[in-house]
Amino acid sequence: MSRRLNSATIVGGALLIFGFISGYYSLQISAEADGSTGARTFPYIGAGIITLMGVLETLRGVRTAAAPLALTKRPVSIIGLMAVAIAYVWLITKIGYLFSTAVAAPLAMWMFGMRSPLGLIATAILCPAVYHFIFFELLGVFPPYGEWIDLLDILQGG
Known about the structure:
With about 160 residues, the protein is mainly α. Helices cover about 70% and strands about 0% of the residues. The protein starts with 6 loop residues before the first helix and ends with a helix.
């Protein structure tokens, strides 16, 4: 069994770090008083899945002859996407779900190659609206409110 640094162990390690950080920040979202599914349930499940993927990818890198580590633009993209994700989770607690999603979604799309200004504006509007409808209206999971400001408060007249 070759235990060398390769692309799979690096990606797996990055996923592990990101999963742990995401899990920690997901636990910072207020729990529901009655113990029901709350705003932190889905981010916490996502963090667990990312951590599991990190374990599996790291094991794949340790057990197989994965591609050797090559310096490309990918590490910069991965670090950038991780920074956006961590900032997104932090922003949710400060400015609420709708504003933070309107900022993070177009940033992520831009990182994946979308350059159309109209497409990025549409992403900033449609992602928060669609995700809000799916999670908060259909599934009944309520968003965490922002400490500083929250668009949902404003829209609901709060």
